[in-house]
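Take a specimen:
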Amino acid sequence: MDEFYNHVAAKTDLESLTKARNANSTSKFYQLCNWDDAMVSKCKALTTASSRRTMCVVPNKETGEPEEAVFALQGFLTEVDLPPLKIRPRPGQLKHIRQHITLTGLGQKEFDEAVGNLYGIHTMLARQVPPGALESWHPSEYNGQSALDIQNRYFTPRKFANGQPKFPFDKLSDDNSYLEDSTTPELYHTYDNHVDYYGAAEAGAAAVAPSCFRPGDIVEVCLSAVMAPVSADKYKMLVVLRSLAAVNTSHTMSAETNRELASARSVPLSLNKVPKRRRAYSPTEKDSGSGVVGTGSAAKRGRMTDGMTDQHQQNTTENPMEAVE
């Protein structure tokens, strides 16, 4: 998002989007920026014994049954590392490769409130382990403003899968089958690793290829907060990507167009053919002492031609006998 990006108009559109989402009582997910005391009282921590992971669970808005707490958040993409993979991963990389985005609100109040609420969730998760066992958590930064790194791994070790079956990769995320071909009996893709990508944030929006997202797009992210072990007695909080929907790409596309126009104006003039160059002398013209008889302008100006002037040549022609004498 450089000088070609209309930051003022984009921030206005983001504020309108967030306001509309906050007022939408029919949404399936809770707005992360609305994490108030009433919502905190509904949120519980659930630990799975096999994976030692702890997640937040909340009552389903329709049934009241406990489910993983998935929160909605709107913002600008600043960094995108999404499928499909461009090269086949090496076996040693499989446990670590992930789909990842960075999101910012460029100082928007609601976005900063959402970041503050993640601190609150971190505090709640810290109560599930001994003091000091949960590593501190802090947001990242973009242009001096708060930003969130949100990610999800492609694979889960079978011993940590909690009995989840393999979940197939879709062709939009793995069109070259690099990920599907990397699956092993001990390391595979589960539903927990799956991320949905949409072309719009409305219900029933069509799935799109993850490669269509660009930094600067206004998006809606669905995310969850999970506490995962990093060693025998240490844990960290992960902000996990669940879905990503493009809401407004007009500012990004306009910036791309303006950037290309500016680049085209700075390109030096190119010609279709080599320009002509004036020569000092014509092919038959000579300077004094060149040994070539001059028939061009130099001879007409009375330059020496074989040691004689034009006038002397004329006299010789008119009085041949004088030349003999």
